[in-house]
Amino acid sequence: MNKIKKKPSRLSRANIISISVVTGVIILIGSIALNSFHPVNSDSFVFAPTTNIFLKGVQDSQGSYHYQHAKGGKSTPSTTGTSPPIKVSKGNLVQIHLINEDRNESNNPSKHNLNIDEFNVHIKDLGYFQSESITFLADKTGTFDYYCSIHLDMKGTITVTE
Ligand SMILES: [Cu+2]
Question: According to the model, what pLDDT value does residue 15 have?
Answer without folding.
Answer: 86
